[in-house]
Write a structure and sequence with these properties.
This protein has 254 residues and is of the alpha/beta class. It has 8 helices and 9 strands. 37% of the residues lie in helices and 17% in strands. The structure holds guanosine-5'-triphosphate (GTP) and magnesium ion.
């Protein structure tokens, strides 16, 4: 049985769903959980069909939710599904190939030493492709702003390509997250860091989606900016008393 689970939330990804699952399975030994919010384009049905194919049976699972509630809610449902089972390494990944599956083995290498590995556009070696100047500015500015308000050293706070060690998800109160949308990513990083988990930023080149429609909205983003202040004021995480799994007394913190 594999210890790895890649969670892929989907909303109208019929052009991508088949290819992304194939690409993930080609790169690492893993299971995949697709969390579909009743996509009007039938992504959920395609996912069910895939899960029934001989090649994927027992490796690909689909969680159906009745309506679109945003990325954060979809991931929380996926995390809970994972925690009810024996997975040790739980990935977040988009369906639209912005997150190149080639990086998956590198995440697995790093998660041996760290508790949370974040695919990062804003560390040396990372970057973005096919992004407008404006979008780049919004994203980079947003991360810088959040980093300053929150007082934590993570450079890419809003990315959605990451790998959690199980204990991180177990120790975060998933039912009481404050933020959704981009804020969800920021909040998970913030809580993990504040709990004393070891965080690594893996440089990735992020590519803009080629197929399917963008759901990016500026409204969600600007809302998140205000909510970062709320996060700083309201969320009080302190380091957990047990050392994170896999660490030893000689490990340097972060
Ligand atoms: N289950 C679920 N998945 C979602 C929801 N919103 C977005 N997704 C999926 O989450 C992933 C990231 O969303 P994207 O639409 O790619 O967001 P983005 O990368 O910020 O913007 P674009 O790539 O420009 O669309 C994709 O796989 C989406 O299909 C949602 O409300 N529910
Ligand atoms: Mg995308």
């Amino acid at each position: 049985m594999t210890k790895n689970l890649v969670i892929i939330p989907t909303y109208n990804e019929k052009e991508n769903i088949r290819n992304i699952t194939k690409a993930v399975f080609e790169k690492i030994d893993t299971h995949i959980l697709i969390v579909d919010d009743n996509s009007p384009d039938g992504t959920g049905k395609i996912a069910d069909e895939l899960a029934e194919e001989n090649e994927y049976k027992g490796r690909l699972f689909v969680l159906h939710r009745s309506k679109k509630e945003g990325l954060g809610k979809a991931y929380v449902a996926g995390f809970k599904w994972a925690l009810e089972r024996d997975y040790e390494h739980i990935f977040e990944m988009d369906a639209d190939f912005s997150h190149n599956p080639d990086y998956l083995p590198l995440f697995l290498e790093k998660i041996k030493e760290y508790d949370l590995v974040i695919g990062s556009r804003y560390v040396k070696g990372g970057g973005v492709q096919n992004w407008s100047f404006l979008r780049m500015l919004i994203s980079k500015g947003g991360s810088l702003y959040s980093r300053m308000i929150l007082g934590i050293p993570i450079k890419d706070l809003t990315g959605g390509y990451k790998c959690f060690r199980r204990i991180v998800l177990e120790s975060i109160d998933l039912d009481n997250l404050l933020l959704s949308g981009f804020g969800f990513q920021i909040e998970m990083n913030y809580r993990a860091y504040k709990k004393g988990f070891r965080v690594y930023e893996l440089p990735i080149i992020f590519t803009d989606r080629l197929l399917g429609k963008s759901k990016m909205s500026q409204k969600i983003f600007f809302e998140a900016l205000l909510l970062v202040i709320k996060l700083r004021l309201k969320v009080r995480e302190t380091p957990i008393s047990l050392p994170p799994a896999g660490s030893s007394a000689s490990d340097k913190p972060r």
